[in-house]
Amino acid sequence: MSPHAHRLRCSLAAIALAWAGLGSAGPVTEPLPLEEIAPGVHIHAGHHATWPGARGDRVEGDVANLGFVVGERCVAVIDTGGSPQLGERLLAAIRRSTPQPVCYVINTHVHPDHTLGNAAFAALEPRPRFVGHARLRASLAARAPFYREALERELGTITREADIVYPDIEVERTAELDLGGRRLLLQAWPTAHTDNDLSVIDAASATLFAGDLLFIGHLPVIDGRLVGWLEVMDRLSDLDVVRVVPGHGAPTADWRAALDRQRHYLAGVRDGIRSALAGKRTIADTVESLAETGTEGWLLTEDFHRRNLTAAYAELEWED
Amino acid sequence: MNTFRSLLLATALAAGLAGPALAQQKSDPDNPEANATWQQMRSAMFQERTITSPADAVLTLETPERAQDAAIVPISIRTHVEQRPDRYIERVYLMIDNNPSPMGATFHFTPKSGRADIETRVRVDAYTHVRAIAEMNTGELFMATRFVKASGGCSAPPGKDMTAAMASLGKMRFRVEGEVEPGKPALAQLMISHPNNSGLVMDQLTRMYTPAYFVRRIQVSYAGEPVLSADVDFSISENPNFRFYFVPSGDGELKAEVIDTNDLRFETVVKVDAAGT
């Protein structure tokens, strides 16, 4: 770390301490801003940025949409944020909205911007049950060391192994959770955005939490199987819901149009790669030749488009 | 795995370089020599021998500036000397300083290789130098280095779908590219479906580390004569992919044999017809 960066961090810490001192006893955790998009359905919108971001840039891991649904008996959290601190801030926001206890914490997939806030909820009494796709555990175990390393390298945030919280309820196909007069319908998908995508429908409000099966604004990111994702999107468009909360971007009632935009991008990547493979181009040449195409209207293309081309090539070169 | 590479891996693991502790490994983008792992490997492998670097007249190394997908970073080693019986590149070492197993691959060539070029894909998580070191049959050493930045997003070195990778284990694709002319180096591509995993993952139920499971050895021959052999490990990406040269003479088979750490053997053959052209 440069001396300058160190000073900056120290002064931020000093401000934080001073601010904490203004409140009543104990440190103050600033609640994450929320929006209630339907009765009992609350969303925190993440920034359009890459996880984890850099120190002091206000993003600090806060890039994914987080949500919670309030039933008559208890609350289910859907994704917890990109660091244990964000999980604390989400918890503080929940505390301000409802006296109901948190009984379930659902992770829509393994990515760190959706799972690293779990630690804040694991400490609750009684401890909520953690819910994920049947393949979440293995994927998280393999990736967590790299996520923890990135948090430390980029934000200076030190985590413990115990901060990585694994699912208690592992969904193979579908599951139903009861929050007291309110049901959540969970569906585990074949490999798409990742190999452990889990969607959640709040039946009362007909709201689908798509996780990163749907991106809006933020360029879609391929970390599973491109062809599988396109198939899953066809099945998603058959769902009978009135609004969708994407993993990134604003919740929308016009969600089929958003799916179409995502399909357009992903199918473009697929077709571009297939024709490069037919022309016997190498992976490096292919990535370069397609780097500037197909990304109109999307954000973060510099960060993710080449990566998508790389992953798609490695997948599609095995097609018959 | 050969003893030498085992020693290097053991050294790296003992030094706590594996897994999350990687973050502690420092690299200076402008000074490839300033890295503790490299210095250890250099003295273990090459002692005080001179290593000429850069050595653009002998070999160059192409990598992306940033590891876009940490699990799949394309690497291209290009050589610029003829493989003549009296002077040829005998070995090319591919090293990734800050990987848990820094020695990603050792490729062995012969004059029948035609060219000692290699393209493959590696896993890169941390900011690191990547090195290609050519060792001539005369003992001369030449090195090309590139600095690669870690991935910016949430990508990580493990594979994307372990279940799918295991289901297609051992499937191979082998082909020769372009027109084949006798006596002229021809390009071949070998693809191996294999999870190639590191074993640096703790099973959360048993608290045991899963055993590493990766392709460790590749042997390619043309018309019964070796053209390429390689000792490789889990720094190579899932579904290992290699592009390399050989010199066809007439009719002959190009044969690849692959051995993994469970001693499973996979074989594939492609017929090469260079006589008719």
Percent helix among the residues of chain B?
10-25%
Q: Name the CATH architecture of the largest domain in chain A.
A: 4-Layer Sandwich
Estimate what percentage of residues of chain B fall within beta strands. 35-45%
CATH class of chain B: Mainly Beta
Global mean pLDDT of chain A: 92
Q: Which word captures the global form of chain B? A: globular
Spatial gap, N to C terminus of chain A: 49 Å
Helix and strand content put the structural class of chain A at: alpha/beta
Name given to the CATH homologous superfamily of chain B:
Immunoglobulins
Domain count of chain B: the total is: 1
Query: Radius of gyration of chain B, rounded?
Result: 19 Å
Quantity of strands of chain B, as a count: 15
Strand tally of chain A: 12
Number of helices of chain B: 3
Strand order of the largest sheet of chain A: 1-2-3-4-5-6-7
CATH H-level superfamily of the largest domain in chain A: Ribonuclease Z/Hydroxyacylglutathione hydrolase-like
Main sheet makeup of chain B: 9 strands, mixed
Distance between the termini of chain B: 40 Å
Give me some keywords for this one:
heterodimer, A: about 325 residues, alpha/beta, Metallo-beta-lactamase, Chain A, 2 domains, seven-stranded mixed beta sheet, five-stranded mixed beta sheet, 9 helices, about 40% helix, disordered N terminus, B: about 280 residues, mainly beta, Immunoglobulin-like
